[in-house]
Structures are given as structure tokens and as C-alpha cells.
Design goal:
Length: about 1000
């Protein structure tokens, strides 16, 4: 709290502001400060309000030791001055007897006799106040269940009574009834009792999250896996990082452990690591720790006890060491509760949970299903698995590697990986074998392989340096042919190290949607790229001409590099004049490879030809070439080229609009790619393209699976930027499909990745992930969380001096959410930031939309300032529209002027200025023009007519012209086939006639 309130009005405003904060230390500390301030005023009512807020902060901040102390002060105030407690304050006071009972029950140091004494106090107070005793019997039942006594009588005394105003909410009582049946071993009856809560018909602050956590395992046992998956995602989100729901989080961890989702369990544990230090309730901590131990025990049983994991602060933990510490602490807590209660109930319940065996081997919970191997610490990528066993001796291994490398066989990479491991051993002895050659040659071979791997990750500058170093070693070994290939490869890699148009497009993928990527003038960048690749090609030709007589397979590689240089130039420029040179070089490669029987290079030449035709826009020719290539590869090989050829054919078929054929090609490609190392046949791209085909066929769920598979393969290959871009697309698709929980769970998982947390991933790409998450939260009606995310993102993007347009877009969206939350002062501040950023880098549509929406929201607020503030927003929107019109900006939908005119009509209607409203709506209709056949335009036109009809016929009481307007519009819509839109107008006309 920056400045203490100086008046009671300021105190109440500060209390309201604190009430909007999430529970936790910040809210609790602020509540403590406000309570101290309230005492200084010397007035009982402000102090009562401050103490109520403080007790709530302690209760839901998991600090049960402090809650009863605050309540004791409230109770003293009530005893001393009962008259200052109005009906609402009195209700709050008696309601919170239950909070104190719950708090005392959660503290093992509080004697059982004291718990019973408090229940007697509650009963006496309720009877004295003339209140129903059902809440008291509810607390008596909960104490019996906690202690482990026979609960049958206590349950009947509570459940058989009629609910009162002070009873727990229906959702909470439903949960208690279900837990009674669950404790009796009756899963079916418990799930029946839970139905209204799990279906969302009953809810409160803790529900349905609390019920969901208990219902997860019974649902799995009942075989309701689709339902349990949905409830886990939504239920976990309702309790994540919340100290007062630590036990619920523990049950989600247990659920993950028992359904084959151990990796997700560890991920969720890491996300909630602060709870180890924040949870001050021993009972909640026991619940949490038991769930943690179930998870850790399962991970350790699967042989991953040495995995690092999140745990208690102050040291690093492995699964095994944390499990031992958790077991010690949880055993101690259970023993303390049992000692207090005089039973063994808590130790027995804990043992029951720990003894449970997995219910399912695997249950896919999220769009990112991962195994324990996936969450292991990042190491060097695993060596690719060869199709055949590798030779044992170094000499034979070197021979095999070179033979496979000459063929272009993918298994060569496994051989080189094995040799890299062998040579790294200090005891390695190079074989004295003429075929193995000198050590310098092997070092050059390994450097060339390392450069190839670097190129796959687009680390072109690193690759160029490695190729140059390899060339020097080849020259030392007097291998001129290999040296020239290495130098030629360095030339092409160096040319690609300059950002190309394709790389610029990749950069744009990381910029938040609706923003522009920073960069130099596109034409200048293209010209520079064309010059670089032209020069690279000339250098490759020079190297080729200066090295005659080298082995045919090496000459073919040089020719292929020449084709690639021209191909990259075409890709950079998109100029049709650059097509013929690529095809000419590809023809040279094809003829040479055919003369020398180099099947791999024959396939490469045909693949490059098909790709070039596709880039030139000649898709039919490209498809014919790809079809021929696929047939040749099926009969003559080499087989490892077939997945790439099928990938290209599928992409061309997509371009031709034949999604069914593309699906067949790409599905076959994915199936065949499984036989080869993923990086050799570009399996991630295959899955990504297959996702596009699935979307074209309406197979959205399958598309999501392929997108996420593509992303995970990219992660494993180390291309993390591409992986996160693909995951971002998957998240957006899941949001578009209405799979809100899937979208949020996926993004939560990604945002926990170490390189995201440590700030190593591109900040604009992370911003896009967070923006999508905020939109998903908003769509899922979690306005508070969505607003918090966007406010934070807007604050961060304000520092993007190189990209003010993105900040304008984010700030505009943030302002709308603040307006929806009724925080118009903050909304005005944020939309002003959007306007300032928009002035530097215009975002006409996003900023105009935000201003108009804020005007609408403000006008709906009661009070004299509503219409005035709304018109101020519209004045700003008018200036944006004027500027857009000046530069010829075209909106995606209706024009900014049309939308502005409609909003002026609506705002004036809210304000009671009906003549002005009707004039504005007529202007909007004039700008819209005739509805035509476009259904979107027809819907907007009909809505504008409808509102004009309401203003004219209802508020201005000009029934006849209003009816004429509406009936003519309805007839017009019907004649154009827009019957649904016409019906809304027909209904309004009938209403006006009835009133007439």
C-alpha cells in the first residue's frame, strides 16, 4: 500500500481495491495495513469492515492460526456494540463461526476439547440469536469425519435438516454429501451426488474445483475418461498456485501419477513450488504432501529417482531426495493430528492413498502428452538409431560411415555420432588402417557432419566456420575433392547467414498477431539477398571449374550446391526471371547423376525441379514432376527420399485445393518417415503439412494432434523457436475450436519451459503465447485472470520502442478488458497508451475497435458521467477514423466510419438523445449501403435497421415511419434469402403493432 487512506471513504475504496486482488501475501499484507489504519479513525464500522477483509485474507491465504484471532476481535465488537452491526454485517459475523471451526480443526496443536468447546460456543450463539442450527450440525459432522469417529449419526443430524441462510452453499454441501458416500466406498452414489456441481449447475468460490479434485479417481474407476480429462484441466486451473487449495492440488498430482501422466505431475509440481513455503495450514499441507509423495513414489518406481524436481526452498532436489523429505514431514503431520484426535484416521488415510496402484497405463490429458524422458534435463540430442547394427571396430565404423555418407544414406549420421563419442574418449586410438586414413581426415569428416547438423538448426554462420575448418584439414590430408566440397558448403552457408526473406517471415511469426515485424525496407533487403546468392553461385561455379577430375559423387554434390544457390535466390526474390536458371542447373545435375548412376542425386534433381515449378506458381507441372518422382522412388529408390517427395507432393496438392489427395500423400509420408531418423526426413514438417490437410477436410482434432506432434519433434531436434511457433498455432487453433481448457493447459505448459522462464526465448514469441492465453481465459469467462495477464503484458510491451504497433494492439485489447471489469480510470490510461503508440505505428482497426467498445461499456454504466465519458471515447475514435480515411486504410469488415456512426447511434440512445441517435443510425445505414448477398453485411444491416426501428418506434413514438422502415427492410432481406435476419425485424414490427 503506497499511501495510507486519510478518510473513511478512502479506506472503503482501498478495501474494495484489495478485494479485487488474488489471495496471497500481497493481499494479506495490504489487509493488515488497512486494519491498522482503520483503528486510527476510532469508528467501529470502518474497523469492522477492515477486520472482515483481514480475516478473509487469512482464511483464503491459508493462514488459519491468524483467522481466529481476528474473529475474536470482531466478536468482542459485536458483544460491546451490537447496534453497529447491520443485517449484512451480522450475517457475516455468524457465517464466520464456520471459518473459525475449520481453522481450528486444521491446527494439530489445538486440543480436541477446544474444538468441541468452540462448537458449543457456536451453538449457544446461534440459539441466542434465534438462528437455525443446521450450520452447527454441519460443523459437528465435519469434526466427526476429521477425527475418524462413526459419522452415521452426525451425518443424519446435519443432512436431514432443512437448509438455512447461514448454511454452507449448496455446492459445498453437495461436496460434503458426496465425500460421505465416497468414504463409505460407494463411488457410484458419490458421483450421483456430485452431478450438479461437476456439471457447473452449482458453484462458489471453492467449487467446483474442490469437488473435482475428489471426483477425479472415482471418475476414472467408472471409466468416464473423457469427462475426467475435461474436469482435470478446468479443475486444476481453478486451484493452481492457490495456498488455500493446496490439498486440491495434491489430489491432482495424485491423479496424474495414477493415470500415466507422471511427467505432467512433475510439471504441475514445479508450477506450485511456492506452496511448500506459503501453506501455513498443517491440514492442507498434509493433503498436499501426500499427493506429492504419491507422484514422487510413482516416478521413482519407474526408474527416474535421480530426476531433478521442484521442492522446498533453499536447496536442489531430486525425485528420490524430495520423496524422503516429504515422507518425513507428512508422517509427522499425520501423527500429530492422530495424537490430537486420539485415533489413527490420518495415518490410515495417508496409507490408503500411498498404497493405490495406477488405474490406467496412459490417459492423454493435454495437447502436449509427455513422458518422463521428455522432462529430463536438456542434454545433447540422442544419436539417431540406425536401421542396422553399427560395426564394433573403429576402422569398420569409419568405413561404414563414409560408404553411407557417399550414398547420402540417413544412417551415416548414426555412424558419425558414434565416432564422435569414441574420439572424445581420452583413450581413443586411431586405427592403423589405410582405409581409415589419417586422424586429420576423420576430424574433418566429423567437423563436416557437425556443420551439417548446425545447418539443420539454421545456425548458418556456425556451419560456415565449421566447413572452413574441415576444408583446411582435408587439404592437409591431400583430399582436394573433399576440401572443395567443404569450401563450397561454407560459401552457401555463409550466404544464408544473412537474413533472408524467409527468415524475415519467420521473425514475423514471433510478433503478436496484428503487429508488423521490424526490419529494413523489404525491397532493399530482397536486392541484397539476390546479390548475395548470385555471388555465391558464381563462387561455386569457380570452385567447380578449378577442381576437375574429382569423384563423380563429389561433383554431383557441387552441382547440387549450385542448384541450391539459384533456388535460394529465387526464394528470396520471387522473381520469375530467376526460375529458368534454377531449372537449368537442376537439369545439369539430373543429366550428370543419370550418366553416373547416382540414384540419390537423380532423386534430388527431380525434387528440386518440382520445388522450383511450385515456387514459380506452376502447380500442375510441379505435381506431374512430383508424381513421377514418387513412382520412381517406390520402384528404384532410394527409399529415404520417398517421405520428402510425398511431403512435397502433398504440399502441391494442398495448393491445388485437393485436400483429400494431400491427406493421402502426407499420411503415407508420415508412415514411411517412421522408418528413418526424424531429422533426416524432416518428420516435423510432414506432421505440420498433414495438419493443414486435416483442416481442409474438417478433421480438426487430428489436425491438433499433428501440430503438437510436429512441435514436439522440433523441440527434440533443438529447433525451439520453430517448435514454439508451431505450438502457438496449435493453441490458437484449439481456441478457435472452442477447446478453451486444452488451449490454456497447453500454453501453461509452454510458459513453464526453462528457456521461457529464464527469458532466453524470443520475447515477442512469448508475448504471442501470453496474448493467446489471455484471450482463452477471457473466452472461458475468467475475466479477472485475463485482465491481469493483459495488464502485465501491456506494461512490458510499453518498452518495445522498436515495435510500438504491437504495444498499441495489446494496450487496446487490455483497455477493453478493464472496461468490462468496470475499471474505467485504468482503461482510459491504457487506451491513451494505445493511442500514443498508434501515433508512431498505426493500428487503426484495433485502436478504433477498443475506443468504440469502451464507449459502449461506459454508456451502459449508470450515473451522469457515463454518456459524457462515452462520447469522449467516440471523439478519439473519430480522429482515428479520420486519419485512416486520409491514408486510404481499409478495414477487414465494415468501415471505421460505419462502425463509428452505429456506435454514436447506440450511445445517444443510451443517453436518451433519441433524435441524434436516429440520425447517426441513418448515417450508418447509408455508409453500409444495400445488404446484398453477403450474410455478414446483411446481419449488420439488419441490426442497424432494428436499432433505428426501436429508437424511432419505441422511444420517439413514431410508429408509422418505424413500421415502414422495418417492413421494407424485412422484405428486402427475404428477397435476398436472409430469412433469419428478416425474422428479427418481423418480430419487432409485430411488437410495434401490438403497442400501437
Amino acid at each position: 500500500m503506497q499511501t495510507a487512506p486519510q478518510t473513511t471513504d478512502e479506506l472503503y475504496e482501498a478495501l474494495r481495491e484489495n478485494d479485487r486482488r488474488p489471495y496471497g501475501r500481497t493481499r494479506t499484507v495490504t489487509a493488515e495495513e488497512l486494519a491498522e489504519t482503520a483503528e486510527l479513525f476510532g469508528e467501529p464500522v470502518p474497523l469492522i469492515h477492515a477486520l472482515l477483509e483481514l480475516q478473509e485474507a487469512y482464511t483464503y491465504g491459508s493462514e488459519p492460526r491468524k483467522s481466529p484471532v481476528v474473529f475474536a476481535r470482531l466478536l468482542n465488537l459485536f458483544d460491546e456494540q451490537p447496534g453497529v452491526f447491520d443485517d449484512r454485517l451480522r450475517h457475516q459475523l455468524f457465517w464466520r463461526f464456520k471459518w473459525v471451526a475449520n481453522a481450528l480443526r486444521s491446527l494439530p496443536e489445538v486440543p480436541l476439547a477446544s474444538l468441541r468447546q468452540w462448537q458449543t460456543e457456536m451453538r449457544d450463539r446461534y440459539e441466542k440469536a434465534g438462528l437455525e442450527l443446521q450450520p452447527y450440525y454441519g460443523q459437528a459432522y465435519q469434526l466427526a469425519a476429521h477425527v475418524g469417529e462413526d459419522t452415521a449419526l452426525a451425518y443424519e443430524l446435519w443432512a436431514g435438516r432443512t437448509r438455512s441462510r447461514l448454511s454452507d452453499c449448496e455446492a459445498c454441501e453437495t461436496c460434503e454429501r458426496a465425500l460421505y458416500h465416497l468414504a463409505a466406498g460407494d463411488d457410484e452414489r458419490a458421483l450421483r451426488a456430485w452431478e450438479p456441481v461437476l456439471a457447473g449447475k452449482e458453484s462458489c468460490q471453492e467449487e467446483p474445483a474442490r469437488s473435482v479434485s475428489y471426483a477425479l479417481l472415482p471418475l476414472v474407476r467408472a471409466g468416464r475418461t473423457d469427462e475426467v480429462r475435461r474436469l482435470h484441466l478446468a479443475g486444476y486451473r481453478g486451484c493452481r498456485r492457490n495456498p488455500s487449495m493446496a490439498g486440491e492440488i495434491g489430489r491432482h498430482l495424485e491423479f496424474c501419477a495414477l493415470t500415466g501422466n507422471e511427467a505432467r505431475g512433475l510439471e504441475l509440481l514445479a508450477e506450485n513450488r511456492t506452496l511448500f513455503d506459503e501453506v501455513d495450514s498443517p491440514l492442507s499441507l498434509l493433503d498436499l504432501l501426500t499427493g506429492v509423495e504419491v507422484l514422487l513414489a510413482r516416478v521413482e518406481a519407474l526408474g527416474h529417482g535421480e530426476l531433478p524436481t521442484a521442492g522446498f526452498p533453499g536447496r536442489s532436489w531430486t525425485v528420490a531426495s524430495l520423496r524422503a523429505e516429504v515422507r518425513r514431514r507428512a508422517d509427522d503431520l499425520a501423527a500429530r493430528f492422530d495424537a490430537r484426535n486420539g485415533t489413527t484416521a490420518h495415518t490410515d488415510r495417508r496409507r490408503t492413498r500411498l498404497d493405490r496402484t495406477p488405474l490406467l497405463e496412459s490417459l492423454e490429458l493435454t495437447l502436449r502428452p509427455r513422458t518422463l524422458a521428455d522432462v529430463a534435463p536438456a542434454t545433447a540430442p540422442a544419436a539417431p538409431e540406425p536401421a542396422e547394427a553399427l560395426p564394433e571396430s573403429p576402422a569398420e565404423l569409419i568405413k561404414r560411415a563414409r560408404e553411407l555418407d557417399e550414398q547420402g544414406h540417413p544412417d551415416a549420421h548414426a555412424c558419425w555420432a558414434r565416432l564422435r563419442t569414441l574420439t572424445a574418449d581420452p583413450d581413443y586410438v586411431h586405427p592403423d588402417d589405410p582405409e581409415a586414413g589419417p586422424p586429420a581426415r576423420l576430424r574433418a569428416d566429423l567437423l563436416e557432419e557437425e556443420a551439417t547438423l548446425a545447418e539443420r538448426k539454421d545456425a548458418h554462420a556456425d556451419a560456415a566456420a565449421l566447413y572452413v575448418e574441415a576444408a583446411g584439414l582435408y587439404e592437409d590430408a591431400e583430399l582436394a575433392g573433399h576440401a572443395v566440397i567443404a569450401r563450397a558448403s561454407a560459401v552457401l552457408a555463409g550466404a544464408q547467414a544473412v537474413p533472408s526473406r524467409a527468415e524475415a517471415e519467420d521473425a514475423e511469426r514471433a510478433v503478436p498477431e496484428g503487429a508488423d515485424a521490424e526490419g529494413a525496407d523489404p525491397q532493399a533487403r530482397t536486392a541484397a539477398q539476390v546479390a548475395v546468392f548470385t555471388e555465391a553461385h558464381a563462387e561455386l561455379v569457380r570452385l567447380h571449374e578449378q577442381t576437375p577430375g574429382i569423384a563423380p559423387y563429389l561433383q554431383a554434390r557441387l552441382l547440387r550446391l549450385r542448384v541450391s544457390a539459384h533456388g535460394l535466390r529465387l526464394q528470396a526474390s520471387g522473381d520469375s526471371e530467376h526460375v529458368a536458371p534454377v531449372l537449368a542447373e537442376a537439369e545439369l545435375l539430373f543429366d550428370f547423376a543419370t550418366r553416373h548412376g547416382l540414384t540419390g542425386q537423380i532423386a534430388a534433381a527431380r525434387l528440386l525441379r518440382a520445388t522450383t515449378h511450385a515456387m514459380a506458381g506452376d502447380l500442375p507441372t510441379a505435381l506431374a514432376e512430383a508424381d513421377g518422382l514418387v513412382e520412381v522412388l517406390r520402384t528404384d529408390g532410394p527409399a529415404w527420399h520417398l517421405p520428402r517427395a510425398l511431403s512435397l507432393r502433398g504440399k502441391i496438392q494442398l495448393g491445388l485445393g485437393d485436400a483429400e489427395a494431400a491427406y493421402a500423400s502426407l499420411s503415407e509420408g508420415v508412415r514411411l518417415a517412421a522408418k528413418w531418423p526424424a531429422e533426416s526426413v524432416d518428420t516435423p514438417t510432414l506432421h505440420g503439412e498433414l495438419a493443414q490437410a486435416c483442416m481442409g477436410l474438417g478433421r480438426t482434432d487430428e489436425a491438433l494432434r499433428h501440430l503438437t506432434r510436429s512441435a514436439e519433434l522440433e523441440l527434440r531436434a533443438g529447433t525451439r523457436f520453430d517448435a514454439f511457433c508451431t505450438y502457438s498455432n496449435a493453441a490458437q487453433l484449439s481456441l478457435d475450436l472452442g477447446r478453451i481448457d486444452d488451449c490454456i493447459a497447453l500454453l501453461d505448459s509452454l510458459l513453464l519451459e526453462p528457456d521461457v522462464v529464464d527469458g532466453e526465448l524470443d520475447d515477442r514469441l512469448v508475448a504471442q503465447l501470453r496474448l493467446t492465453r489471455a484471450r482463452a481465459l477471457r473466452t472461458g469467462d475468467d475475466l479477472k485472470a485475463a485482465t491481469a495477464e493483459l495488464v502485465a503484458l501491456a506494461a512490458e510491451s510499453a518498452g518495445w520502442d522498436d515495435d510500438p504497433g504491437s504495444h498499441a494492439m495489446i494496450a487496446a485489447e487490455t483497455a477493453i478488458l478493464l472496461g468490462e471489469a468496470g475499471e474505467f480510470t485504468k482503461a482510459r490510461e491504457v487506451v491513451d497508451q494505445a493511442l500514443a503508440a498508434h501515433a508512431r505505428d498505426p493500428r487503426y482497426e484495433q485502436v478504433s475497435n477498443a475506443l468504440r467498445e469502451l464507449a459502449r461499456l461506459r454508456a451502459q454504466q449508470h450515473g451522469p458521467e457515463g454518456p459524457t465519458d462515452a462520447r469522449a471515447f467516440l471523439d478519439d475514435a473519430g480522429r482515428v477514423a479520420d486519419a485512416a480515411r486520409t491514408v486510404g486504410f481499409k478495414a477487414h469488415g465494415r468501415s471505421l466510419d460505419t462502425a463509428l456512426a452505429y456506435e454514436h447511434g447506440r450511445i445517444n440512445a443510451y443517453a436518451g438523445a433519441y433524435d441524434e441517435a436516429l440520425a447517426a443510425l441513418d448515417k450508418a445505414l447509408g455508409l453500409l449501403g444495400e445488404p446484398g448477398e453477403d450474410p455478414h453485411l446483411a446481419a449488420e444491416w439488419a441490426e442497424c435497421v432494428r436499432l433505428a426501428g426501436v429508437v424511432e418506434g419505441v422511444y420517439l413514438e413514431r410508429t408509422a415511419p418505424a413500421l415502414a422502415r422495418i417492413e421494407a427492410a424485412a422484405d428486402r432481406l427475404k428477397s435476398l434469402g436472409h430469412s433469419e435476419e428478416a425474422e428479427s425485424l418481423t418480430g419487432l414490427a409485430e411488437r410495434l403493432r401490438d403497442e400501437e
